[in-house]
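Methods — Computational structure assignment.
A single polypeptide chain was analysed. Its primary sequence is given first, followed by the predicted tertiary structure written as structure tokens.
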Amino acid sequence: MKSFIGGFITGAAIAATWAITHRPSAAEVAAADRAADNLERDATHLTRAMSSVQQRTSALQQAIQDTVPEAEAGINDAITRFKFQTEPRIAKLTASLETITDALPENE
């Protein structure tokens, strides 16, 4: 029993010595605290940024849903007007081309 208590005391002394010699310095503790604070600040900033991106993405999606149908309708109207305006012109050009072709001398 005496050797057990002696071993226990020796082990405790060795562990205490190791803990004292390997404890972090005040500068290391301060640096670790600063790093933890920086990480916490960065995490908060990232969370806010992600929230902002999500809100802006939702707003953009809504704007697209509101704008695209109107733009599509405007484009389709412009195409219809263009076709309406060009069909008579194409008919006139075709008729003129036929007249010119008929007026050309025949190749023999």
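Note: DSSP finds two helices and no strands in the chain.
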